[in-house]
Amino acid sequence: MSTPSLLILPGDGIGPEVMAEVRRIIDWFGAKRGLPFDVSEDLVGGAAYDAHGTPLTDDTMALAQDADAVLLGAVGGPKYDVLDFSVKPERGLLRLRKEMDLFANLRPAQCFDALADFSSLKRDVVAGLDIMIVRELTSGVYFGEPRGIFEDGNERVGINTQRYTESEIERVARSAFDLAMKRDRKLCSMEKANVMESGVLWREVVTRVGAEYPDVELSHMYADAGAMQLTRWPKQFDVIVTDNLFGDLLSDLAAMLTGSLGMLPSASLGAPMSNGRPKALYEPVHGSAPDIAGQGKANPIACILSFAMALRYSFDQGAEASRLEAAVEHVLAEGHRTADLLGEEGRAPLSTSAMGDAILAALDASV
Ligand code: IPM
Ligand code: MG
């Protein structure tokens, strides 16, 4: 088989510095595990806007469509706040998601034991936590029409539309059930069927798909109660499936339970391509962190774990993905910490590249 292609889009803020560490990890798998990748790199977000006046050029979009997988750093920064909505850095990311039709966004929230005391919740509530949020990513209020700011008599009105078709709900539900089958076979679907028609339809379709998965225990929760339950006793959940906006909120909440947003990866998957691999984009859940950009302070782990997800979901290398995840767990257990993982502790933090060094050393030790 030909060498798989990987398009890297470092983006803005801390994106380029965390991605530099990922590139070293990718090279390691090529050199030490016989897993070479054909890597190319391009611009997205503010970086693309600065160079081309658009957050994503058509050329880059075409490269993304052709790549076996895309790995993205982060987009955005205060410098771009003044830009028109249509060219904001975030539009580059949203265009990738929409045009690649990446409808299933997998956001694991896993608590590393070494970091359990870092959570704002008590250790026994979060230790061992391992849940997966499946967020619908290409529809709902993010994309529904009509949208805009319109004149309405003597004032303006801002409009966004929550819209879901049955097939959109069905395909993301199926992704979530398939995942649940590989995990603890428990799926909780979250919407607000008590106030939204789209939520009523969501519940009905998820229930219908559930009939095909008799081994998965399906439950439903209103999304607000879901938020409450996630903070009360998150370990009651295994897989959660929810819409685009609720998923945006609930996945940030779940991420924070684990102690650090800097640790969490994500995968956005679409339909299979002709080579059988799903269309896929991998990115850390954290943002571009402009306040610390360029200082070598950022934690590269979320981005590195995003590459681990790529190994698992795009390249069928589950064992190598586990090797990388174990290396990360090992360095954390040994006490290696970037600044975001130290809080009030007085010791000196590791730099971004020193954390990369530690993970590479752990990988070396694993073979
Ligand atoms: C996320 C982010 C994005 C979103 C932004 C950057 C457009 O918050 O990936 O969760 O709202 O989806
Ligand atoms: Mg978000």
Description:
With 367 residues, this protein is α/β, with parallel strands linked by helices. The protein folds into two domains: 1-105 and 264-367, Isopropylmalate Dehydrogenase (3-Layer(aba) Sandwich), CATH 3.40.718.10; 130-257, Isopropylmalate Dehydrogenase (3-Layer(aba) Sandwich). Helices cover 40% and strands 21% of the residues. A ten-stranded mixed beta sheet has the order 2-1-3-12-11-4-5-10-8-9, with helices on both faces. A two-stranded antiparallel sheet has the order 6-7. Magnesium ion is lined by residues 248, 252. Residues 5-359 form the Isopropylmalate dehydrogenase-like domain. Its cofactor is Mg(2+); Mn(2+). Mg(2+) binds at residues 224, 248, 252. Homodimer.
Number of strands: 12
Could you say which overall geometry the principal axes of the C-alpha atoms support?
Answer: globular
In the CATH hierarchy, what is the superfamily of the largest domain? Isopropylmalate Dehydrogenase
CATH architecture designation of the largest domain: 3-Layer(aba) Sandwich
Strand content: 15-25%
Q: How do the strands of the widest beta sheet line up side by side?
A: 2-1-3-12-11-4-5-10-8-9
CATH topology of the largest domain: Isopropylmalate Dehydrogenase
Order of helices and strands: EHEHHEHEHEEEHEHEHEHEEHHH
Q: Could you tell me which ligands this complex binds, including any ions or cofactors?
A: 3-isopropylmalic acid, magnesium ion
Quickly give the structural class. Answer: alpha/beta
Report, as a whole number of angstroms, the end-to-end distance. 24 Å
Rg on CA atoms, Å: 20 Å
CATH class of the largest domain: Alpha Beta
Q: Count the domains.
A: 2
Mean pLDDT: 95
Give the biggest sheet.
10 strands, mixed
